Amino acid sequence: QVQLVESGGGLVQPGGSLRLSCVTSGIAFSIYAMGWYRQAPGKQRELVAAISNGGTTNYADSVKGRFTISRDNDKNMVYLNMNILKPEDTAVYLCNGRRSGTFRNYWGQGTQVTVSS
Question: What is the DSSP letter of 73?
Answer without folding.
Answer: T
